[in-house]
Design a protein that fits this description.
Mean pLDDT: 96
Order of helices and strands: HHEEEEEHHEEEEEEEHHEHHEEEEE
CATH superfamily of the largest domain: Creatinase/methionine aminopeptidase superfamily
Distance between the termini: 23 Å
Structural class: alpha+beta
CATH topology of the largest domain: Creatine Amidinohydrolase
CATH class of the largest domain: Alpha Beta
Number of strands: 18
Number of domains: 2
Low-confidence stretches: none
Largest sheet: 5 strands, antiparallel
Length: 337
C-alpha cells in the first residue's frame, strides 16, 4: 500500500520515466543504432534526477521484450540485420525509472520514419492500454481488466498476447506478485484471481501481434536479454562461508547487490567491474571470467537472468504501458509529464 510519505517518490519516478520515453521518441530515426538510443535514454534518466529501474530495452518488429545491448553490442540470436533502425521498423521502447526504489515503468511503440505501415496496430495497442487503465477502480475483478485490454486489438484485427502480463510494483520490486491480464482470461482463470486494490501500484502493458497464435517465445540462451537480477534469496556472506564462492567472487557479488539491490541490471553496466581485479587481461579472457562468474552466481541462485522474447509465429508486436496508482476514486496515471 502506498503511504503519503512515499507518494512523491512514486510520482517523481513516473514523471522522469515519461519525460525520458518522450525524449527518446525523437531519437529513434533511420540510421540510428539501437545501442545509441538505449544509452541515451539511460543518460537522460540520470540527468533528470532518476536512476534506471532496469536497463532500457528495445524490441524491433517481431521482438517483443527483454532485450538490451551488452558491452559488445552483439545482436539477439536470429537477428540477421545490423542493429540499426530502418524506415518502417516497428519499435517498442520500455523505460523504467526509480527514485529511492519507487518505480515508474512505461513503454510505447513507434514506426521508424512515419511510413504509416503500422498505424492501426499502434493505435490499437495504445487504446488497449487506455481501456485497461480505465477499468482500474478498487474492487474490479482482474478478468474484466483483461477483457477490456483485449477488445481494442481484437476489434482492429490483432491478437492480444496472452503470455505476457502487467504486474504490481512495490519499492525495489519490479514484479511484486500480482499479474495483470491483457486478454479475456475469464473469471475462473487461477492465475488472475482477485480484484484491483486501492493503494496499490500496477504497470499496465498490453501487447498485441499481427500473428495468429497470440503467444511469445523465448529466444536464444537463458541470458539472451543481457539482463540480470540479484534474487535477494541468497547471502553472499553465507556463500563465502560455505565455500560456494571464492573471496573475489563474493566481493563482486557484494558489489552487484550494493549497486542494484534486487532491481534488474545490464551486463554492460556490470562487466567493467572486472577491469580492476584483472587489469592486464585481454577481452577474451575477461569475457571468460565474466561468464564463469555469472554461471556460478546463477548456480547458487544469487543471480537470475532472462530470455529475450519474440512473437511465437513471427508476427509484429505492439505495446504501450503506464504505471498507475489506485486511489479511492480510481486510477491515477503516474507516468505523465
Amino acid at each position: 500500500m502506498v503511504d503519503e510519505s512515499s507518494l512523491k517518490y512514486w510520482r517523481d519516478a513516473g514523471h522522469v520515466a515519461r519525460r525520458a520515453i518522450e525524449a527518446m521518441r525523437d531519437e529513434i530515426t533511420p540510421g540510428k543504432s539501437w545501442d545509441e538510443v538505449i544509452k541515451s535514454a539511460e543518460r537522460f534518466i540520470k540527468r533528470n534526477g532518476g536512476n534506471a529501474a532496469f536497463p532500457c530495452t528495445l524490441a524491433v518488429n517481431e521482438l517483443a521484450a527483454h532485450y538490451t545491448t551488452d558491452h559488445s553490442a552483439i545482436a539477439p540470436e536470429g537477428w540477421e540485420r545490423e542493429m540499426i533502425f530502418e524506415k518502417g521498423d516497428l519499435v517498442k521502447l520500455d523505460i523504467g525509472v526509480h527514485i529511492n526504489g519507487h518505480i515508474g515503468d512505461n513503454a510505447l511503440t513507434i514506426e521508424v520514419g512515419n511510413s504509416a505501415n503500422h498505424t492501426e496496430q499502434i493505435k490499437a495497442a495504445k487504446e488497449s492500454r487506455d481501456a485497461a487503465v480505465e477499468m482500474l477502480h478498487p474492487g474490479t475483478p482482474w478478468y474484466k481488466v483483461g477483457a477490456a485490454a483485449a477488445q481494442p486489438s481484437l476489434d482492429a484485427g490483432f491478437q492480444p498476447i496472452r503470455n505476457l502480463c502487467g504486474h504490481q510494483l512495490k519499492p525495489w520490486e519490479l514484479h511484486a506478485g500480482i499479474s495483470v491480464p491483457s486478454y479475456a482470461c475469464g473469471p475462473d482463470n487461477p492465475g488472475f484471481k482477485g480484484t484491483v486494490e486501492e493503494g496499490c501500484v500496477y504497470a499496465i502493458e498490453p501487447f498485441n501481434t499481427t500473428g495468429s497464435s497470440g503467444l511469445i517465445k523465448n529466444i536464444g540462451t537463458h541470458n539472451s536479454s543481457n539482463i540480470y537480477r540479484v534474487t535477494g534469496k541468497v547471502s553472499w556472506r553465507k556463500a563465502l562461508a560455505r565455500k560456494q564462492l571464492k573471496p573475489l567472487g563474493a566481493q563482486l557479488a557484494r558489489t552487484l547487490e550494493d549497486r542494484y539491490a534486487t532491481l534488474p541490471f545490464a551486463e554492460r553496466w556490470a562487466f567493467p567491474m572486472l577491469e580492476k581485479p584483472f587489469p592486464d587481461t585481454d577481452e577474451v579472457s575477461r569475457q571468460s571470467k565474466w561468464n564463469a562468474l555469472v554461471k556460478k552466481l546463477i548456480s547458487i541462485r544469487f543471480l537470475e537472468t532472462y530470455h529475450a522474447l519474440a512473437c511465437h509465429d513471427s508476427g509484429l508486436i505492439g505495446q504501450f504501458e503506464h504505471t498507475v496508482l489506485i486511489t479511492e476514486g480510481g486510477p491515477e496515471i503516474l507516468t505523465v509529464e
